[in-house]
Amino acid sequence: MGYFCLLVIGNGISGYGSCLNLVALNVFIYDVTGSALAAGLFMTVRLATSVVSGFVSGRFVSACDRKHLMVGADLCQAVALLTLLLAPDGTRPTLLYVLALVTGGCSTLSQVALRSSIPEITGAEHRARANGLLATGRSLAMIAGFASSGVVVAQLGYSAAFALDAVTFVISATIMFLLPIRTRAVAPVEAANSGSGKSSGATQWTVRTLLRAAPLLMAMTAVRAVDGLGSSSHNIALPLYSNSLDPDHPATFISQFWATWAIGNIVAQQLFGRITKTAGRAPGERAFALGACVMSAGFIVVFSGLPAAPIIIAALIAGAADGFTEIVYVSRLQAAPDEQRGRLFGLSASAENAGFGLGMLVSGALLETFSPLQVVASFHGLAITLCAVLLAVLLRRGRAATQRGEEPASREIPTAEGRG
């Protein structure tokens, strides 16, 4: 784990740049084009690229050197930003959509490669703690990026914001390149010489074979896709709801909500590793389903119109459950064999981005007619229903396995300490 802290720092630095860039780009697009439609189209292109990139990334991550992929993805984003920065004003509107393609594809590729590599970088027994550290670093970077974006753009301008973002990607790529880490269980060359005559057995893994080989993991991925719908609904509804609470200061509730959510998220991420180490086991599918139910219920309560105190508690619980379920989910997928892992995370990235993108469109349309509470409750209620079904299936399978005297198929994942 010694080198992993440096990796967390590098990943957090690039995450800060991404959050800063997201805000700066949205404002920049509107200033350059004078069109809200152009800003929406930019986000649509970026999300669509992320969805497609998930499927492609799974293949690349399974067949290529993951460390090189992560370094290349960061450098490609840095080059794209510098190109936009140095381009003549007349070409910038077109280059913005090229940037959307590059950032959408490369960010997904980097995420899939990193998550697939964690068990090999830190050791499988430390993956839950490693995921917690990564998630905490990313959460802190998100807070810093969103908090400073307005100041950076207002005081230094768009050029400084884009240049700073490019520098963060270069720093992240440099740290990753210099770290002496192994990112895969078996190198592609070794797999090619294993006697099969094929470049990599991982290239044979398709969605159909994954459904047969890992149905529970596919069910968890479906839950994450529906969670994406719910996440988009509260993101879209939050400004409307905040404005209805205090038309003179609509940003107050939004900032309070995200600050409270972030605190709960970070606390859960930090406690997760310690609890896992003490218990000797990492929570599995049942804990994931329960955590997702609590998370969605918390978001619904936030929009219920209750007094401030219970709303703050609900936001804190939602953030904690969000952080908990993310680590459980990622750690569970990382328990799969290395040859499956790239495809699993690629499929997961596509499902989550597709759910979020679809939810943005549908939520925006529904909010023209229905209240924020109705829309958020509908989307998150769908997630709760799916989680309840998954939990019922897991409990039924567990009882059946117990009656047969077998170990339940859905079980908590032992760590090294637990096996000792």
UniProtKB/TrEMBL annotation:
<dbReference type="InterPro" id="IPR036259">
    <property type="entry name" value="MFS_trans_sf"/>
</dbReference>
<feature type="transmembrane region" description="Helical">
    <location>
        <begin position="7"/>
        <end position="30"/>
    </location>
</feature>
<feature type="transmembrane region" description="Helical">
    <location>
        <begin position="344"/>
        <end position="367"/>
    </location>
</feature>
<dbReference type="InterPro" id="IPR020846">
    <property type="entry name" value="MFS_dom"/>
</dbReference>
<keyword id="KW-0472">Membrane</keyword>
<dbReference type="Pfam" id="PF07690">
    <property type="entry name" value="MFS_1"/>
</dbReference>
<feature type="transmembrane region" description="Helical">
    <location>
        <begin position="160"/>
        <end position="179"/>
    </location>
</feature>
<feature type="transmembrane region" description="Helical">
    <location>
        <begin position="312"/>
        <end position="332"/>
    </location>
</feature>
<keyword id="KW-1133">Transmembrane helix</keyword>
<dbReference type="InterPro" id="IPR011701">
    <property type="entry name" value="MFS"/>
</dbReference>
<protein>
    <submittedName>
        <fullName>MFS transporter</fullName>
    </submittedName>
</protein>
<feature type="transmembrane region" description="Helical">
    <location>
        <begin position="373"/>
        <end position="395"/>
    </location>
</feature>
<feature type="transmembrane region" description="Helical">
    <location>
        <begin position="135"/>
        <end position="154"/>
    </location>
</feature>
<dbReference type="GO" id="GO:0022857">
    <property type="term" value="F:transmembrane transporter activity"/>
</dbReference>
<feature type="transmembrane region" description="Helical">
    <location>
        <begin position="287"/>
        <end position="306"/>
    </location>
</feature>
<dbReference type="GO" id="GO:0005886">
    <property type="term" value="C:plasma membrane"/>
</dbReference>
<feature type="domain" description="Major facilitator superfamily (MFS) profile">
    <location>
        <begin position="3"/>
        <end position="399"/>
    </location>
</feature>
<feature type="transmembrane region" description="Helical">
    <location>
        <begin position="36"/>
        <end position="57"/>
    </location>
</feature>
<keyword id="KW-1003">Cell membrane</keyword>
<keyword id="KW-0812">Transmembrane</keyword>
